[in-house]
Design goal:
Shape: elongated
Distance between the termini: 22 Å
Radius of gyration: 21 Å
Structural class: alpha+beta
Strand content: 25-35%
Number of domains: 2
Low-confidence stretches: none
Largest sheet: 3 strands, antiparallel
């Protein structure tokens, strides 16, 4: 399949062919069989959600400048408008400076946001076959 920049979406009571293709990269408008009503969506829209985070606080547990565990909350707004959230923490031990600590904190919150975004419900606007 050339130019695979779309994601195949099979929803509802999909046939076995479409169920097997669900979530795979395919060309735009790909139709696996006659009378198929499934759709393709641009890959960029596959994970269309936004997030925000809130730094809750720090717990110092050492004498170094970055010997802290920072707690935070992340809330994701899914493409259907629903929200999902979770709490986590970032261990700053070993950070070399404030920029290094901030990069690690940002990476931890972004990773949690991606994980939550992956759990967003998939809209099911059509039925196959």
């Amino acid at each position: 399949m050339a130019d695979t920049d779309h994601i195949f979406q099979a929803t509802g009571d999909s046939c076995p062919i479409c169920t097997a293709l669900d979530g795979l990269k395919v060309p735009a408008g790909y139709i696996p069989h006659d009378n198929c009503h499934c759709q393709t969506i641009p890959e960029a829209e596959d994970s269309d959600c936004t997030h925000s985070f809130n730094h809750v606080g720090n717990v110092r547990d050492g004498s170094g400048p970055f010997d802290v565990v920072s707690h935070f909350e992340v809330e994701v707004t899914c493409s259907d408008g629903s929200t999902v959230g979770a709490s986590s923490q970032y261990d700053g031990h070993g950070s070399l400076d404030l920029d290094d600590w901030a990069d690690g904190f940002d990476a931890a919150s972004e990773a949690l946001a991606e994980e939550l975004c992956d759990s967003c419900p998939v809209e099911e606007p059509f039925l196959c076959c």
